[in-house]
Amino acid sequence: MLGELALGILLGVIIILIIQGFNIFPFLFLGFLAYFVWQLGTGGVERMDTNTDTKKIPLIDFKEIGGQETAKKELLEALDFLKDLPAIKEMGIRAIKGILLNGPPGTGKTLLAKAAAHYTDSIFISASGSEFIEMYAGLGAKRIRNLFKNARNSARKSGKNSAIIFIDEIDVLGSTRGQVSSHMEYDQTLNQLLVEMDGLSIDDDVQILIMAATNRMDVLDPALLRPGRFDRIVNVDLPDKDGRLSILKIHTANKPLSPKVDLEEIARETFSFSGAHLENLANEAAILALREKSPFICQKHFIEAIDKVIMGEKLDRKPNKEELKRVAIHETGHALLGEIMNPGSVSVISISSRGRALGYVRHNPADDLYLHTKDYLEKQISIAIAGSVAEEVLLASKSTGASNDFKQATRLVKIMIEAGMSELGVVDKDTIPEKVLYEEMSIILRRIEAEVKIIIEKHKELIEKIAGELLAQESFSGDKLRELLTEEKVA
Ligand code: ATP
């Protein structure tokens, strides 16, 4: 208010001086210069978009977070300490200062931090690691100091005795010190965070808990993780099937679902989806239903939305007839090997363009798998290269459409070698000479390619038939594919 009044008066004076014929431009220039220097000195150039307005933060309950049962349990145990300070003081227990949420993007780390603030009736302040990294030395450190000051002041103003500071992407400011050689700004900022954390005491009038999120725990400075700092690490992993189901239930609760919708099937079909993917999936399914003017969201909307979330929007791009036939044969190659290697695993086979792909086969594991055997990896490699082998056998040439498949195949071969599953035996992945690695990869890939070729040649006519069907229908389900295979006594 005062600032606005002063600005008004200043503008008035400037206008009067101009009318009087004064040359005010040198003064204006000096004024701007002085202002800039003052801003630098006081940290007035703060631009940090720290979210300190607690009213804007929707209160989230742990019940609104699907799955993540272990993470929730571990977190609640730690938060109960914050809720019962007298008992902790009595026992002489050191307060928990930092909780690190570690896991892939979109798994609900921010949601957990917000729910923690709700559960402990704390002020919630959030910032992202990248907001502390600035060109000017010392600014990041100053922002850290301000963050803690803000948290205390906001809590006092709202009559609360605790605050949760959530720092997303902490790896940006918290990676091992001395590693960023260009400037010391990162190190100063991290040092300041450590100093602030060390200064927190159980006797403070406002208890501050720092929650931080990362998916790069490996790069964090060990000083951050030592006891007394972020000594509680909560893993927030991708949800398993039950977790996916409960997340889907949460995100479809406000949507009109057809009674025939089977969310269990959707949960099964969405292996490796994060909570954010599932939220997006529910949203996309609703959009598809709306486009069709359907009053309910049906199973087919969800199934199509899965493809959209994985592959992107369906495109109008139409390859020419010859290309389309090649795409159909390529995808049939993947699907056939998929069914032979893992019966019942193909969900959808399609030659409609989505994202950067001209066609795709969506495979579905029968169960969420967390460990991979050699047999499993070899099967996956066979499926990955089958598209290109089918092109070679049926069309007598390969195309560039297989480059992603090869990337996937070589990645899997590397995993095999590094896990000691090759003729090289147990190897150290960091010291294995590139030439040796390359040669072993070629041997494995050539062997698997030869095996796939035999299968594709054996089923040449069948591939032609399925590809023809695909050209006519554009896409069909795994069940339809299995029908065709049963007719030909393949499955
Ligand atoms: P990032 O690491 O990218 O910041 P994050 O792990 O913090 O991601 P959130 O921001 O918490 O993820 O989640 C993003 C969105 O995904 C949420 O707003 C919510 O809609 C949805 N979501 C993620 N996980 C869950 C979950 N377990 N239950 C319900 N919704 C979830």
Number of strands: 8
Q: So what's the overall shape? A: globular
What percent strand? Answer: 5-15%
Backbone CA Rg: 30 Å
- Percent helix range: 40-55%
Order of secondary-structure elements: HHHHEHEHEHHEHEHHHHHEEHHHHEH
Question: Helical region count?
Answer: 19
Protein architecture, described:
The model is unreliable at 39-55 (pLDDT under 50). The chain has helices spanning 2-19, 25-42, 69-83, 85-91, 109-119, 139-157, 170-174, 185-199, 222-225, 241-252, 263-269, 275-291, 299-311, 321-341, 374-395, 403-418, 434-458, 460-473, 478-487; strands at residues 98-102, 123-128, 162-168, 207-214, 232-235, 346-350, 360-363, 475-477. It folds into 3 domains: 52-235, Rossmann fold; 241-311, Orthogonal Bundle (Helicase, Ruva Protein, domain 3), CATH 1.10.8.60; 321-487, Peptidase M41 (Methane Monooxygenase Hydroxylase, Chain G, domain 1), CATH 1.20.58. It is of the alpha/beta class and 491 residues long. Strands 2-3-4-1-5 form a 5-stranded parallel sheet, sandwiched between helices. A 3-stranded antiparallel sheet has the order 7-6-8. Strand 2, helix 6 and strand 3 (162-168) form a beta-alpha-beta unit. The protein binds adenosine-5'-triphosphate.
Overview features:
single chain, Methane Monooxygenase Hydroxylase, Chain G, domain 1, Rossmann fold, about 500 residues, 3 domains, alpha/beta, about 55% helix, Helicase, Ruva Protein, domain 3
List the helices and strands and how they pair.
Blueprint: H1 2-19, H2 25-42, H3 69-83, H4 85-91, E1 98-102, H5 109-119, E2 123-128, H6 139-157, E3 162-168, H7 170-174, H8 185-199, E4 207-214, H9 222-225, E5 232-235, H10 241-252, H11 263-269, H12 275-291, H13 299-311, H14 321-341, E6 346-350, E7 360-363, H15 374-395, H16 403-418, H17 434-458, H18 460-473, E8 475-477, H19 478-487
This protein binds adenosine-5'-triphosphate.
